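Collaborator request, handled under Task 6.
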Amino acid sequence: MNIADEVREQQQYGLTYAQAGVNIDAGEELVHRIKPVVRKTFNDRVLTDIGGFGGLFDGRFPEMKFPVLVSSTDGVGTKIKIAIEANRHDTVGQDLVNHCVNDILVCGARPLFFLDYFASGKLDVSVGEAVISGFVKACTENNCALIGGETAEMPGMYAGHDYDLAGTIVGVVDRDRMFRRENVSEGDMLIGLPSNGLHTNGYSLARKALFPRYPLSSTPHSLGGETIADALLKVHRSYLGAISHLLEHFNAKEDIHALSHITGGGIVGNTSRVLSERLSLSVNWTAWKRPPIFNLIQEAGMVPEEDMRRAFNLGIGLILIVPSSRANAIESALLGFGEAPVRIGNVVRG
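Structure tokens returned to the collaborator:
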């Protein structure tokens, strides 16, 4: 139907919501498809089904002396552009959940429930289903209920089949088991846990550096057979399992002073957030080997080292700040869990 035909139809019958670009039927079809898989994340604390006006969750925590709710909201930035261009939509939902899980984890909290926001210019039900399947997978892996969300079709705001994501997570921690910046002391060790790539930060710089030279399907030698798309779409790791394992054997106050999730701002920018003003960091930037995607970005875009350190995690996704006397024991426990911890520096007076 051309524009003239649309105008004549509007004059004859009036303008419909579908003609304005919003397909309510597609939205209802998406909800119909996702209900069975979303229910798999439910536990006996979830008191409502998908589709209500709000998600209800049992807020009793009799096992805790002083339960503290911890919440966080985030997105995955322009990593979504990579997913759209590569036509891979089942990983960005995992990225979002795991990112949010890590953000409350560094406060000591375990996740309770997650809510998502999925907005597109023109809703493609199969794409929406793939994205939400990623939410479900990560929520299941993190023992977190997906209790609600919003799907918005917004023609004029997003072009074509472009879409964006946001997520909110709520967790809980007993006040005595919270990580507090007041516990961090001069001489504490920095133990890094590896990332598997960019996670969800620095994609605007990565795209600007790589894409003039490398298509998504290209396989630069330095990536060992991976395509650019493979490297850029690796799922943001969740560190919940490793830290939960540690907290079964170590004290959140005496043995582990603080945690830092390395997102936008890099190692220094994020870890400084859990230090008092009188302390700073001494980082040994050669203590670990960076995943090859970071070297490729730096070479392709001639990116200054300072910008690399501020924009990317550079291969360290989470940092534990621990007393030097407990560092060996904590590293041994992490190795036993299958992690590869590396000492990357220490806390100094500054």
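The cover message to the collaborator said: "The longest strand covers residues 163-174. The chain has a mean pLDDT of 93. Please let us know whether this matches your experimental observations."
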